[in-house]
Amino acid sequence: MQRIAETSIRPLVVNRAPGPLRGRLAVPGDKSISHRALMFASLAAGTTRIRGLLEGEDVLRTASAMRALGAEITRDGRDWVVTSPGARGLHEPEDVLDMGNSGTAARLLAGILSSLPFTSFMTGDASLRSRPMRRVTVPLAQNGAVFATRSGERLPMAVIGCVSAVPLNYRLPVASAQVKSAVLLAGLNAHGETRVEEPVATRDHTENMLRHFGVPVSVMENAEKGRVITLRGPAVLKARDVVVPGDPSSASFPIVAALLVPGSDVMIEGVGLNASRTGLFLTLREMGADLVIGNERVEGGEPVGDLHIRASVLKGVEVPPERAPSMIDEYPVLAVACAMAQGSSRLKGLEELRVKESDRLAATVALLEANGVSVRVAGDDMIVAGRTDGQMLGGGTVETRMDHRLAMSAIVFGLAGDRPVYVDDTAFIETSFPGFVALMDSLGAGIADDGSTNG
Ligand SMILES: O=C(O)C1=C[C@@H](OP(=O)(O)O)[C@@H](O)[C@H](O)C1
Ligand SMILES: C=C(OP(=O)(O)O)C(=O)O
Q1: Cα distance between residue 255 and residue 308, in whole Å
Q2: For the chain, domain boundaries
Q3: Could you report the per-residue pLDDT of 158-215, keeping only the tens digit for each?
Q4: Is the dihedral of CA 11, 15, 19, 20 positive or negative?
Q5: Is 356 close to ligand 2, i.e. is its CB under 6 Å away?
Q6: Are 4-29+245-451 and 31-239 equal in CATH topology?
Q7: 178 lines ligand 1 (CB under 6 A)
Q8: Prior bond to 156 cis, omega within 30?
Q9: How confident is the model at residue 3 (pLDDT cuts 50, 70, 90)?
Q10: 37 CB under 6 A from ligand 1?
Q11: Which end of the chain is more exposed for a tag (fewer CB within 10 A), N or C?
Q12: Is the pLDDT of residue 100 over 90?
């Protein structure tokens, strides 16, 4: 596959929106659910039809990897169709699996490969190659797999799967749905009960979707231990169709833009409302956002709803650390909202931001500082000074560091600020939100009209 994102840089100058943002839109499918849908469908014997799959680069990397392991994956009109011989029919890939920019793809696949009886090699782009893998290799090695990593921690990585995996009993040392999922996926082929304890709840799409594919997964809340998840292997997945809801993390960008651009009135339809993902909506409401959730329903086993957002005067907020997993990818754009709010904000317990596509704590601080915002880090907290009367914001250059969420946050800043914001590279937006600029322009953002300097 061509490494599109690394070969073409797309800088952008973003001016203040020419007027209010208005209209109705739908955001692309949920990235977490899309990865899982392709992976789990490839572990199930038979045919699975997926509606609403995110066609972003990260998810397309997962599709390529599952094809290399023996699943047939094609697009059929609006749907994606996966036909697989099932986990036992998958085979050794002929070449290195390139997971591009995607931590979710690399870490969940490590869990699957660790319990399949062959050897695989995995790599990624410069961003992914810099991210920690020990958080998955340490537990997965305990069930019998062997890993060889660069510098003991990074991709490229070789995975020698084990023939009879030992089930794990593992307490998560970091709040990570990727680590939890890797351990659970390895447990599918182990003989006996796999048990994961998570002190703080993280997104539960793996648990939900494994059940959807016919695997009994038990979840117990325990005052002392937190959430305890168990499943019994060997487990056989049954092919089941999947409907993917709109991604609440992607929705956060048009939401914050609509709140900040005066006079805006935007409706976003079909957004996933899984409680393990909606920390930003709660936080924005605490800031005074006019964000109304309507038409709540269940689609494909996940709660979804329509969001109505009207421009609002926001005030500063304090976000507790235990809320972080439910909004972990939303902090860069929340920080933009905090910079434009009245009064200061403290976002607590952000240590995991340091190991995302970039060091998002440092990169978000740099984004804000370059555009005239006063911001500092104290331990793992970020403290953002709110807007003062007459302060002119914007005019800076944002280095996006191969990080899609920084690129979109910088664009939102530019739309709501006073002076143009120069974004060094927007190409990585393709990993999670293809068509982002066009969609914002359909609301009246006017970005491509005057901002595109290179396609
Ligand atoms: O499981 C998932 O789909 C994800 C989990 C989160 O990562 P961590 O598990 O590293 O917190 C999140 O940041 C990522 O975008 C997607
Ligand atoms: C952290 C993210 O993704 P991943 O870990 O899959 O690269 C993200 O999308 O913000």
Answers
A1: 9
A2: 4-29+245-451, 31-239
A3: 999 997 788 999 999 999 999 999 999 999 999 999 999 999 999 999 999 999 999 9
A4: positive
A5: yes
A6: yes
A7: yes
A8: yes
A9: very low
A10: no
A11: C
A12: yes
Q: Which residue(s) pair with 318 in the sheet?
A: 346
Q: Are strands 375-378 and 154-160 parallel, antiparallel or unpaired?
A: unpaired
**Residue 329 is among the residues annotated as catalytic for this protein:** yes
What is the distance in A from the centroid of ligand 2 to the CA of 132?
A: 13
Look up the pTM and report it.
0.97
Separation of alpha carbons 50 and 293, rounded Å: 26
Cis peptide before 234 (omega within 30 of 0): yes
CATH number of 31-239: 3.65.10.10
Domain 4-29+245-451: give its CATH code: 3.65.10.10
Distance CA 290, CA 364 (A): 25
pLDDT at 301: 84
Strands 242-243, 290-299: pairing kind: unpaired
Burial class (CB in 10 A: 0-12, 13-18, 19+), 58: buried
- 32 CA closest ligand 2 atom index: 6
Judge if the beta carbon of residue 405 lies within 6 A of ligand 2.
yes
Give 286 Cα–ligand 1 centroid separation in angstroms. 24
SS3 194: strand
Tell me the residue length of the chain: 455
pLDDT (average), residues 415-439: 98
